[in-house]
Amino acid sequence: MNVLVDTSLWSLALRKRPKTVEENRLVSELTELIGEMRVVMIGPIRQELLSGISDKKTFESLKEKLRAFDDQELKTEHFELAAAFSNTCRRAGVQGSHTDSLICAFSALDNCEIFTLDKDFDFYAKHVKINLYH
């Protein structure tokens, strides 16, 4: 099964330095998934990763690394389901970002797992059908 890697994990691997044994394990797991060619990317995650980098050289370097991953096509159905998921979660008292809702919708429609460090996805999973990578 393909894996959609969330911004939080990409950031750990590419923008920060792993500091704990667990963080190193997660980065190794990501590296293995890349080697297996199971990692998929969507434009909103790419944008989040590249946003907020003030140093132009660092920005260009990260942009080049990410070019190894083509953006998967997002269709009307992804955006409609993202809105429905957002509404469902909000009714249950769970607030989330538009990007998180889109990630959930992509996971559901394209049958892929979400690899993330963001615990919000555990809350989303209680209310909408998504696949989390463990």
Strand proportion: 5-15%
Q: How many beta strands in the DSSP annotation?
A: 4
Low-confidence stretches: none
* Mean pLDDT rating: 95
Biggest sheet record? 4 strands, parallel
Our count of domains comes out at 2
**Helix vs. strand class:** alpha/beta
| H-E order | EHHEHHHHEHE
Strand arrangement, largest sheet? 2-1-3-4
Kindly provide the radius of gyration, computed on alpha-carbon positions and rounded to a whole number of angstroms: 15 Å
Helix content: 55-70%
Number of helices: 7
What is the overall silhouette? globular
Distance between the termini: 12 Å
Commentary on this structure:
It is a single chain. The chain has 134 residues and is an alpha/beta fold. It has two domains: 3-66, no CATH class; 76-132, no CATH class. Helices cover 57% and strands 7% of the residues. The protein is built from seven helices and four strands, in the order βααβααααβαβ. A four-stranded parallel β-sheet has the order 2-1-3-4. It starts with a strand and ends with a strand.
Summarize the structure.
The chain has 134 residues and is α/β, with parallel strands linked by helices.
Descriptors for this entry?
4 strands, 7 helices, 7% strand, four-stranded parallel sheet, 134 residues, 57% helix
Could you outline the blueprint of secondary structure elements for this entry?
Blueprint: E1 3-5, H1 7-14, H2 21-35, E2 39-40, H3 43-50, H4 56-66, H5 76-91, H6 98-110, E3 113-115, H7 120-125, E4 131-132
Parallel strand pairs: 1-2, 1-3, 3-4
